[in-house]
Design brief:
heterodimer, A: mainly alpha, B: alpha/beta, six-stranded mixed sheet, four-stranded antiparallel sheet, 9 helices, 26% strand, binds adenosine-5'-triphosphate, binds magnesium ion
């Protein structure tokens, strides 16, 4: 029996499958973080609002989504949403998993934004308000432009983390990188794809991490 | 129209607590148009808190602040309009690092007073010329010295055409060689008739420019009077003790 074909042989023969998987991973991660960011913005503003009820609701939302495993959230989205909300019945299976990814990401992003806003010196807000600037203009024109320097790199890191997290979506037949394992297992290739998959993840996260570091350097130049 | 000598800002039994700590214990004070008031006192006595209550950066827990006849209310939207007329200069400058010197000055007049951009910039250049910084108009604050930042903060407040200026230890964060240039700008301002309240540890400066001196300690005004009365002939024991340490 032996080990079978080498990693290189498998890669050379099936690289289009891995490529498609990698593109799927990048795409699902992007969709999750993109929509997660929009939702996360809303959540963070609720959390920073001085209205007690909104503050509590958003804080519970963040705690639950960060305190439970993503895989469990995916299962719940996959099996529970279609039953609980019949309107969602004819959505594709991909959508349920994406909903879980987006909600999960929004919780992390809202913390990133909250942290970014809190990292801006309180004196900035005080100076703006003492000039007579409204709370809204102070946020939009003074605080957020300064917070963005901390928020952007953290968002990019969230994207990198999400690339690894989406590997769980393969469980639900989503065509991402980890799912290629299932495809090739059908051809009795068990161990080689795993190393190839690991290698591709490593390349993607390393390259992106390097990119984030460049971005951070760029942003800090203006300090 | 407010005439010189009219009451500009008044506090009635002003109180402020942080949790269990009562920092201001009932301050009654009247500041008139054109006056220059220096506030002195030991660290922790409540000087900053008093100043910050005047524009509601700290919300009082008791009493009233009456500005130009209006009771200030931290929750009212009118507060923004009143604040436009109460300039404030902080120890830590708090210039906006993401905006150029010019934009630091013009952003609030343009946003909140709907001043036309070109008018706001014209005035900003005029203000910068007065403090000798017109060549810095397009720089970002990171390129400025501490003294330049603080002068920028002062003209940024001036651009709103305030009726009163509050200074909280404007030179305490500066290197010694930059103190003079900032004091000079403040001196100019007081000469132009601007009403000023200045918290300071620069006793010489307080004595020189103030019409009136307040000595705040333990959350109350312990003594007040002309610089001569307070510095030369203090009546209260606590004032004497404080002055003997700092003079
Ligand atoms: N936001 C706050 N929360 C809790 N305590 C505060 C707060 N701000 C001030 N205090 C306390 O109130 C007291 C008075 O502070 P304040 O800053 O008014 O004193 P100060 O006279 O300006 O002193 P300094 O000369 O050191 O600036 C201090 O004991 C301080 O610790
Ligand atoms: Mg102080």
């Amino acid at each position: 029996m032996g080990l079978g074909p080498s990693i290189i042989d498998v890669f050379l023969e099936y690289w289009p499958i891995f490529l498609k998987g990698a593109i799927g991973t990048l795409r699902f991660s992007f969709i999750a973080v993109f929509f997660g960011s929009i939702l996360g913005c809303l959540v963070s503003f609720l959390r920073l609002s001085k209205i007690k009820v909104l503050e509590t609701v958003s804080s519970v939302y963040v705690t639950v989504l960060r305190g439970t495993p993503l895989l469990v959230q995916m299962y719940i989205a996959y099996f529970f949403l279609p039953i609980a909300f019949p309107i969602m019945n004819n959505l594709s299976k991909v959508t349920y998993v994406l909903i879980a990814l987006i909600l999960n990401s929004s919780a992390y992003v809202s913390e990133i934004i909250r942290g970014g806003i809190n990292s801006v010196d309180k004196g900035q807000t005080e100076a703006a308000r003492s000039l007579g600037m409204t709370a809204k203009n102070t946020m939009i024109r003074i605080v957020l432009p300064q917070a963005i320097k901390n928020i952007l790199p953290a968002l990019a890191n969230e994207y990198i983390a999400m690339i690894k997290e989406t590997s769980m979506a393969g469980t639900f037949m989503l065509y991402e990188l980890m799912y290629t394992r299932v495809l090739l297992a059908n051809k009795f290739l068990i161990w080689q794809p795993l190393f190839i998959i690991a290698g591709i993840y490593l390349v993607m996260t390393t390259v992106l991490t390097y990119g984030v570091r460049m971005l951070e350097r760029r942003l800090s130049v203006s300090d | 129209m407010i005439e010189v000598g009219d009451v500009l800002i008044e506090t009635k039994d002003l109180r402020k607590s942080f949790g269990d700590l009562e920092v201001l214990k009932g301050i009654n004070e009247v500041i008139r148009k054109g006056e220059v008031v220096a506030v002195i006192g030991a660290s922790g006595g409540g000087k900053s808190t008093f100043l910050r209550c005047l524009n509601m950066l700290e919300e009082p827990t008791g009493g009233q602040v009456i500005f130009e006849g209006n009771i200030l209310d931290a929750k009212s939207t009118n507060l923004n309009l009143h604040r436009q007329k109460i300039g404030m200069v902080f120890q830590q400058f708090n210039v906006f690092p993401h905006l150029t010197v010019l934009d630091n000055i013009t952003i609030t007049p343009i946003l909140e007073k709907k001043v036309k951009k070109e008018d706001a910039e014209k005035e900003a250049y005029e203000l910068l010329r007065r403090i000798g910084m017109e060549d810095k108009a397009n720089e970002y604050p990171r390129k400025l010295s501490g003294g330049q930042k603080q002068r920028l903060a002062i003209v940024r407040a001036m651009a709103m055409h305030p009726d009163i200026m509050l200074f909280d230890e404007p030179t305490s964060a500066l290197d010694p060689e930059m103190v003079k240039e900032v004091l000079e700008v403040i001196r100019e301002l007081t000469r132009s008739g601007m009403t000023c309240v200045i918290v300071t540890h620069e006793m010489g400066f307080a004595r020189e420019i103030a019409d009136r001196v307040l000595f705040i300690d333990g959350g109350i005004i312990v003594e007040e009077g002309t610089p001569e009365e307070v510095f030369e002939h203090p009546k209260n024991e606590r004032t004497k003790e404080f002055l003997s340490k700092v003079l």
